[in-house]
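Consider the tokenized backbone below.
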């Protein structure tokens, strides 16, 4: 089973991680890759570099440039993992959150067949 894991830190910051934290994160990512569960991962820049695009009734679009005010909903990074059960994905999320120390991880099962296979 493939799961998309979204990281929502609850706060937004332009402060880059410390070299020590980057090393810890790199080690964790390497361990996940060695275990064969990590398919893809990356962090995202702050919302001030982004935009939200919505479609309204009648097909009209609204584009809102960042930054966005509701920090608890902001996604700061993602991972796509392949594990046997949702419980395994939950354990990976707990490991990650222990490493970063705050926020939440939303776990969503992906469809069995990739859209662009």
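A designed sequence for it:
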């Amino acid at each position: 089973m493939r799961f998309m894991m979204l990281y929502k830190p609850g706060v937004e910051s332009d402060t880059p991680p410390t070299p020590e934290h980057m090393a810890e994160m790199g080690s964790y990512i390497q361990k996940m890759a060695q275990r064969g569960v990590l398919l893809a991962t990356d962090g995202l820049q702050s919302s001030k570099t982004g935009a939200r695009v919505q479609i309204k009734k009648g097909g009209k679009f609204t584009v809102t440039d960042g930054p966005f005010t509701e920090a608890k909903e902001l996604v700061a990074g993602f991972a796509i993992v392949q594990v046997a059960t949702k419980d395994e994905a939950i354990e990976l999320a707990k490991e990650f959150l222990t490493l970063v120390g705050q926020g939440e991880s939303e776990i969503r099962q992906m469809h069995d067949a990739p859209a662009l296979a």
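The first strand starts at residue 2 and ends at 8.
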